[in-house]
Description:
Distance between the termini of chain B: 72 Å
Largest sheet of chain A: 2 strands, antiparallel
Oligomer: heterodimer
Number of strands of chain B: 15
Structural class of chain B: alpha/beta
Order of helices and strands of chain A: HHHHEEHHHHHHHH
Distance between the termini of chain A: 39 Å
Helix content of chain B: 40-55%
Strand content of chain B: 15-25%
CATH class of the largest domain in chain B: Alpha Beta
Amino acid sequence: MIGVLFDGIAYGSLLFLVSVGLSVTMGLMNFVNLAHGAFAMAGGFACVVAMNRYGVPFLATLPIVFVIGAALGALLERTLYRRLYRATHLDQVLFSIGLTFMAIAAATWVFGSSQQLVRLPDQLRGQVRVAGIDFGVYRLFLIAMVAVITAALGALVARTRFGAHVRAAVDDAAAARGLGIDVDRIFAVTFALGSGLAALGGALGIEVLGLDPAFALKFLVYFLIVVVVGGAGSVRGLLVAALLLGVIDVAAKYYVPRAGAFVIYAAMVVLLLAFPSGLFGRRA
Amino acid sequence: MGRSFARLAAAAAAFAAALAFAQEPVKIGVIAPFTGPAAGFGKEIEAGMRAWMKIHGDTVAGRKMQLLIRDTGGPNPDVAKRLAQELVTRDKVDFLAGFGYTPEALASAPIATEAKTPMIVMNAASSVVTTRSPYIARFSMTLPQVSAPMATWAWKNGIRKVYSLVTDFAPGIDSETAFKTAFTALGGQVIDAVRMPLRNPDYAPYVQRAKDAKPDALFIFVPAGQDAVAFMKAFEERGLAKEGIKPIGPGDLTDDYVLNSIGDPVLGVITTHHYSAAHDSPENKAFVAAFHAVAPELGRPNFMGVGGYDGMAAIAEVVKRLGNSIDGDKAMEILKTLKLDSPRGPISIDPATRDIVQTVYVRKVEKRGNEYWNVEFDKFPDVKDPGK
């Protein structure tokens, strides 16, 4: 029972980590960025290349991956994304899904379509036994990462001047501009932040989700479920949604494996019926 | 006078030689995925066919063997059917070959029947495939064929209680059914048979449940590739091996194509399959070397590669006997009684079902140097498809 709960929380943590970038770009900036998976994939490949080609230890790759993802996001934001901020959501969807297909083709061309492999350091492998229950070490690590990112992101958005600017810019760009906030720059930085987080999530996810060019689309449904249930733009909502869905999914697969695959979708439907704008979402 | 006669003779000889060269090539339409996530299927099959030509030459009975490669881009039955139609009507191929996925083979079968074109299946592994057209002969395997012998082996080795975990799609269900039927017939017990969804992001809860059920062995079928990697990681992390639970299953789990990228977690896994790149025979050594020469980027051949090789050998045999007049019905008569010394061992075609009869090997994953291999240590000769 405690084991299942722990696995659920760990799985929820993973969902949180791979979706948090999307929560920033889609939730905070109101841009339907279906290319989120492509940024996550880019982060994964950055991690693989750093480890396998340059011998960088796994933990040291994480900041590198974040920076590469952020730089890539900033570049694409300046050249492509900014043109679509005022476009309809359908245009954004078409644009970002097109970008995703391009990313998949590019990744296949460079890395081939096969599975990439990373070998975690021994400290992060295996299980530790506490009070008679086995806990996966990597899963504990994921939970710790979630705590760090939630705290950092929460503090950034809620307590800093930058965070206040972001919220102002998203709520009413015209008024924010009138107050002298450089909305353009704020959006660029926020998008870079979201892309960096997506890349980080991709790198952290390799061990469990694997990594190949199909990654960009394969888990998109899960990213979207978590962000939608969590409510747009709320880190706290995302965390609660991810953990809740993680526990429900794992428990269902453990106790009723025959129905396990569907329960996460059922949970989504029920939660959205009860909270149409997400658990912690602001009503639009 | 004498000189001019010699000249004439030389010219005649050159003409005759040119005639021989002008013989129509044998056209073989190869339909398989060559792009997308299953690109490996097509690449393995094509490399296997080219490896055959590398060893035996690309000309049979004076006719050049010509491959017309057609990409379906994934499991894509509609595209496969359209390609088969084009190959038959426009390119006038003598053979259809390839077929990575069962649905692609099923969709193309009516075309083979209508055109009376022999269809050489080099992978698609559901039992039903060969029943769909009298012009189909299969040179790969069927999942029941490689799954059922595992039951016999497990029973002989003291395994009594098995927990079955398979991916919830046709091959997984085929595999589960074949194992379960054979194992319970011997008196064994399958304590639970769980089917996991395709594209499952986390195998931990399924593996944990299997562990808590404390079986003697865990019967596993997951598609080769990412799922096999993810599954074996979960298996290792949950420490099932330490509890004495043996991982067993058909060889898809330890496919040569991905074996090295799974690495340590797969060490010691016991599988039944019809081909391992480590198979110890002169035919296989030659095949592995030729395969590596034609497709160095693929590394070593897997079971699809050997399917391509044997399919090509079968086609060559038909061409050798029929020469210039290849006719679908006569070709099938030859294929039905074909026996070959394959890199996997002796194979033959069952005249009643046009399906392959072959040795199924029991193998264990071992590390030799820096590479992982499926090392064969036991075998079941002349296994037919029990699914028919």
